[in-house]
Amino acid sequence: METSASGICPELVNALSPHGLILRGGFNFGADESVPSVLSGAPAKSALLVGQAGSAPWPHFLRWLETQPAGLKDPLDSWSRQIIGAVAQDFGARAISPSDKPYLPFQQWAMRAEGLRPSPLGILMHPQYGLWHAYRGALLFETELAIPRLEKPIHLCDLCVGKPCLKACPADAHSEAGFAHEACLSHVRGPDGAPCRDDGCLDRNACPYGTEYRYPIDVQAFHMAAFAGI
């Protein structure tokens, strides 16, 4: 697969674009790494991550969802698998998902591919998109790719003095000690959790970076409902 100086495989970029998806960088596996296999059963030599910036895939996903049976479980995962799987087939790659079991180290791969670091919320902080981005899958290849050299991005959290992302949650779900999952879940499901259910995570929305990519309220409500199982 050919690559250009400006990025990885323009043809692959063009194949993902109609679905609101983008390439999120890639890397070659080391010879001593334990890696998943490709379609032939051989160990993968390289990986390209696929994801989104902002809510670009949302209208494409909604149109697809209208054609699916009511009550489909994990519809966004299903849509992502279908789209990325079809693109992978066209490029001779194996498509994998963050929800595949056994789980693969997608966050570590993302940090490796884009040089990002976690925010205090655990979401990787992107220098342009802030916290408003996601990884929807990866493509595994049997050959090494000419991956453009990665320039280490600035970590915006290092510049943020007030850390408003740690102060907005009424349940104090996020702190320097980590994420209090049960406290968050209980609050979101409870009688006082309507602002979170309707408008999204208050801590995430308090982050001052990448606000132009912030998910619309309906998108945030969808993700909160999936998180809370409601």
UniProtKB/TrEMBL annotation:
Residues 146-179 form the 4Fe-4S ferredoxin-type domain. It comes from Mesorhizobium alhagi CCNWXJ12-2. It comes from the Bacteria. InterPro entries: 4Fe4S_Fe-S-bd. This is 4Fe-4S ferredoxin-type domain-containing protein.
